[in-house]
């Protein structure tokens, strides 16, 4: 199964590479900040065609075309291009994120960091890897020495989930906070021990599903802001090395 998920991500990655820095059509979804390009759509179409051929009975949830429910315990959760804003502006930080659930549990996840040609992957109980190299979260337990990462929703003008106040709090209580623009890559960098922690207030299942398993299989912890198991439909996510989890929870809940 994992090999097939990787194959699907690579097919999508080729489409994305081909479209990078080319004159492509861009549409707005909800406002001027929220873009979808023809490459997002082509990538998604290619992944869904692949699934229809290889696993015709499986259900699919994909960002641009929504849900195709079939009578199956398997469901693919797809972000065909995570980091569309970066892609549209030519910033080489974007990914393809694909997870497969069996009976509502994510059993495998792949994030393809396209321009670095880095394939992050995990299977439940089997560890997490990047291009075959085993991943391990960082050992840092001091929030003041932590490098954190976050992201902002497209409706940041409405400040959902106190996103702005929470950002300021972590700026003041960590070494630094980054904003890369691809939640799936943010999660992989937590798994790799580059970032010590990642939080975001308003994500969708396709942003989180694959990366969550990759962090957990690298020894990290992923919850909502109440320290409960992550609900993929629950919007909020906190993913850390485990050692700074409680400290981040405390600050997240101080707003
Ligand atoms: C976005 C990215 C970004 C995050 C946004 C997401 P998209 O996904 O993951 O890092 O901050 O909340 O919507 O739209 O580029 O697939
Ligand atoms: Ca999007
Ligand atoms: Ca996304
Ligand atoms: Ca996307």
From TrEMBL:
UniProt entry tagged with the keyword Amino-acid biosynthesis: no
Catalytic activity: a myo-inositol phosphate + H2O = myo-inositol + phosphate
Pathway: Polyol metabolism; myo-inositol biosynthesis; myo-inositol from D-glucose 6-phosphate: step 2/2
EC number in record: 3.1.3.25
UniProt KW Magnesium keyword: yes
Keywords linked to the UniProt accession: Hydrolase, Magnesium, Metal-binding
The organism's place on the tree of life at top rank: Bacteria
Cofactors (names): Mg(2+)
Membership in a protein family: Belongs to the inositol monophosphatase superfamily.
Name of the protein described by the UniProt record: Inositol-1-monophosphatase
């Amino acid at each position: 199964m994992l090999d097939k998920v990787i194959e699907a991500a690579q097919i999508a990655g080729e489409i994305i590479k081909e479209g990078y820095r080319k004159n492509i059509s861009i549409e707005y979804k909800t406002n001027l900040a929220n873009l979808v390009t023809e490459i997002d759509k082509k990538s998604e179409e290619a992944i869904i065609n692949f699934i229809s051929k290889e696993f015709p009975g499986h259900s699919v949830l994909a960002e641009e075309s929504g849900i195709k429910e079939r009578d199956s315990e398997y469901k693919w959760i797809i972000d065909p291009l995570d980091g569309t804003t970066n892609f549209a502006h030519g910033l080489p930080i974007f990914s393809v994120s694909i997870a497969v659930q069996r009976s509502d549990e994510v059993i495998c996840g792949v994030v393809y960091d396209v321009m670095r040609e880095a394939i992050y992957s995990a299977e439940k109980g089997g560890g997490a890897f990047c291009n075959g190299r085993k991943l391990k979260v960082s050992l840092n337990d001091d929030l003041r020495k932590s490098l954190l990462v976050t992201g902002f929703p497209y409706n940041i003008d409405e400040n959902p989930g106190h996103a702005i106040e929470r950002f300021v709090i972590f700026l003041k209580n960590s070494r630094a906070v980054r904003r890369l623009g691809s939640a799936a890559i943010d999660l992989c960098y937590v798994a790799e021990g580059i970032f010590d922690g990642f939080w975001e207030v308003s994500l969708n299942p396709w942003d989180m599903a694959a990366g969550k398993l990759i962090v957990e299989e690298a020894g990290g912890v992923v919850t909502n802001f109440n320290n409960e198991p992550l609900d993929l439909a629950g919007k909020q996510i906190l993913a850390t090395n485990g050692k700074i989890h409680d400290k981040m929870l405390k600050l997240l809940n101080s707003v």
